[in-house]
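Final report, Chapter 2: Outcomes

The project's central promise was a pipeline that accepts a single protein chain and returns its three-dimensional structure in a standardized token representation, suitable for archiving and comparison. That pipeline is now operational. To close this chapter, we reproduce one record exactly as it appears in the project archive, with the input sequence first and the structure output second.
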Amino acid sequence: MIQRVTVPTLFPPPTYSHASVVEAGTRLAFLAGTVPLDERGELVGPGDPVRQAEQVIANLSAQLHAVGSDLAHVLRTEVYVVGDEPATLSAVWRVVEDSGLSKGPHSSTLLGVACLGYTGQLVEITATAVVPDGPADTGAQR
């Protein structure tokens, strides 16, 4: 069970919760930073943070599926965006909102950074998610 908490005495966050609590015994998945590379390892959307964010969300969804989870079960994300303009960060956050990822609402941090690991990379997202009980045909190696 996921309990999402927005503290009434704090300023309400726009589309996420202040904290997420998971009962003991729940399986969790800690995902590595998800990057905007396609299946061939090519950068998607050079120079376009919105297109890169879309690819990151698609890749994040695939990672979650591989472990038997989905975007609805994400508890926490860190969204990294190369840039120092709030408008750029907001454009990437709109992609996150549109994906359904933030419908939890989940806990999240949005950061503007100087650079990321791949040349030309503008967006990366790390995530922690609940893996629901039940059989999952993931096709992933464990």
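Archive annotation: The radius of gyration is 15 Å.
This record, like all others produced under the grant, will remain available to the consortium after the project formally closes.
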